[in-house]
Amino acid sequence: MTETQARSEPRNALDELPGELLMWVLIVSELLVFGAGLAAFLGVRISDPFGFAEAQDHLHRTGAALNTVVLITSGFLAARAVQLRRNGQRTMARWHLIAAMLLGGVFLWIKGIEFAEKAEQGIGVETHPFFMFYYLLTGFHAAHVVAGIVILGLVAIWDEAHIIEVGAAFWHMVDLVWVLLFPVVYLLA
Amino acid sequence: MKYQSQKIALAYFAVAMGLFAVQVTMGLVLGWVYVSPNFLSELLPFNILRMLHTNSLIVWLICGFFGAAYFLIPEEAEREIHSTKLAYLQLIILVVGTLGVVLTYTFNLFEGNWLLGKEGREFIEQPKWVKMGIVVAALIFLYNVTMTVLKGKKTAITNILLLGLWGLALLFLFSFYNPENLSLDKQYWWYIVHLWVEGVWELIMASILAYLMLKLTGVDREIVEKWLYVIVAAALFSGILGTGHHYYWIGTPGYWQWIGSIFSALEVIPFFAMMAFAFVMVWKGRRDHPNKAALLWSLGCATLAFFGAGVWGFLHTLHGVNYYTHGTQITAAHGHLAFFGAYVSLNLAIFTYAMPILKGRDPYNQVINMASFWLMAGGMTFMTFVLTFAGTLQTHLQRVLGEYFMDVQDQLALFYWMRFGAGIAVVLGALLFIYAVAMPRKEIIEPGKTAEVPAE
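^ inputs. structure came back:
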């Protein structure tokens, strides 16, 4: 196309988004899905508050709290990696990304123990509506942690600053979703 | 027409429009069976008519997609189609297969035969030899267009179009897998039906729409591509797990009710984005393209797809609602407007745009073509409303009050009469459309001249 972008398109809010537009489309979509999932969870909970409260007592709250710290620390490291790369400290940025990935692994390990414990008690998806939502929401989230670790690995290899920023944006979304899930699923009395 | 091999599209469009005529005629006959249930019940029973109606729809839409691909890929890739011969061979296979299907269904030939007889699964009833033919034709097509694109210029439009067409062909392979277990059968069955129309076909739709917008409005390619990627991302994000909205009552675990409800509710987003895209491009565009009818079909497509697929789909996609409405006339209302809005209109838009170019003329019969749009769109919208009311009543009488199916059907007669009337409008519109694009005037009519001879 011969016409210049400037003539036809005044700068708008979309152009000022950090990272990549498509990543923001994904992030907004993910938030809509998890938001709808949590809303459905709270909606169904109204129909059976005692059953939900009783089921919730089977959850491992300390492990989940620990996981919150793990994931937020990991998010901090990813954010630092972007800064470090911008300052030209390439190796340091990579180490931060690797540390962030390792903490993601720790999160999954703790989560795995939690899931295994539930399975041992014979608690499955069909046990109670609470556990159906529990498995759906935290399971979907854990799948995103796996995807996030892969993405962090990729941006550690192709490590231009703006690419790391796109990866970090995804990782922060995974963080944010967990911070929303944790109180609603584990704590809300 | 810049490239000679674009001419292939003409043959595909002709076959598509022929089958389109067959499809709407069958639809009209079915509409009559609804008001007079014994009509043709011995000669061509309802289930056979319905198979012909739905199968010919799918086949002509796909023929249209193939034709559209052969038309736009040379222009986008800036080179001729890899092999013209293969393209025609592919069409011959498809036509022979289609004839085989029609004869097998109509006369119930080779009943029960593994290779030659019709199969029992709804929409994929085709005899196995036809299915194999479809796969061979699809392979020829994919080879042909992929070679063209690989050797030529790669654009976002061709990339997305190829992604959609590859998905279309690969997902069809599930039609060969027919598990004994009825739940599993249905689960895989939806991999074809759902992942086509709410997955990869949306990619085809978005890319063809993007091409039309590029040509008709003259907006920068860069802007069109940005929209295209966002639409495709939204379509795949919502559509793939949105398959879950078919898994509510087929024996799959209960969590599908939530996965299906949540993801399929988001399926409205890509359709809204496509509508917004089309209108924003027209507002931004500075080009005054002479083919106004193509623009009308493009905007109509995006709008009716949003309502038919998006809004009418959302209407009964949440499992709490679907528990009552499942399989009522609400589904028929949604099915009609969604297919018409999204995929029929899309095909008619690209036919309207491409036919004058393929024939090397100015856009002719613009008024007749636009009249056919309003006739078809009006008829189909009316039909959708009528069926929605019928479905609402049916849901209440049958599912809430628990009356018998046939007793309820009797009470819906008025709606079925109105639906038949709407069907007449659609069929007339379809015939008018075919006339408008296939029967060219010798020259374009100037507005001044028509004013002098108003009696014409």
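Chain A touches chain B at residues 1, 3, 5, 8-9, 21-22, 25-26, 29, 32-33, 36-37, 40, 125-126, 132-133, 135-136 (CB under 8 Å). Residues 22 and 166 of chain A are 10 Å apart (CA to CA).
thumbs up if we can close this ticket
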